[in-house]
Design a protein that fits this description.
183 residues, four-stranded mixed sheet, 7 helices, 7 strands
Length: 183
Amino acid sequence: MANISEKLGKLLISFRKRSYNSFSVLKNIDIGCLMTENRKDIDVRIDFLTEVLDGSRDPKNTFYYRFISDKRRLKNPGAIDLDGDYMVSKFLDLYRDIRRNGFRGHVFADKVFFDKIRTHYLVGGKKQYVKVPNTSGYQLLQGAHRIAIQKYLGETEIPCMVTHGSKNSYPNYKIFIDEIIKS
């Protein structure tokens, strides 16, 4: 016979799976609502597109290239060592596909109801937590490259699958970007 904590754990997992599906809704969201203080990585991606596509800068001489190639992130558990050239190539391929065929699919975000949002970044394998103001009520879960492309192309809204508070902490790329700038 399973103990009470095992039963409660299984019940909680079951509830989370059901609630994720039943409380999710697909809707168009203003892109600005997803470009929150802790997601400055989206601005880095937009700057990259602007600099590279207007021909003023080689991709290897952009801050985005520095950002994706920085080896400090590899000290974090689960980090994948992806080649900067490969990442640039995939980003530009995605841009060309969206430009040619239009945006298909959606991004993912959480609807957050708290005044402050708990954010984190892994520094040297340890989570550093910072609370930031909840200025828009949303936190991006997935789709930063696609948001950057849509914003670059002049779009103001993006299809988004919205869940309700599925996480208790969200990535804070501003911390990592500030570290890169200092170095």
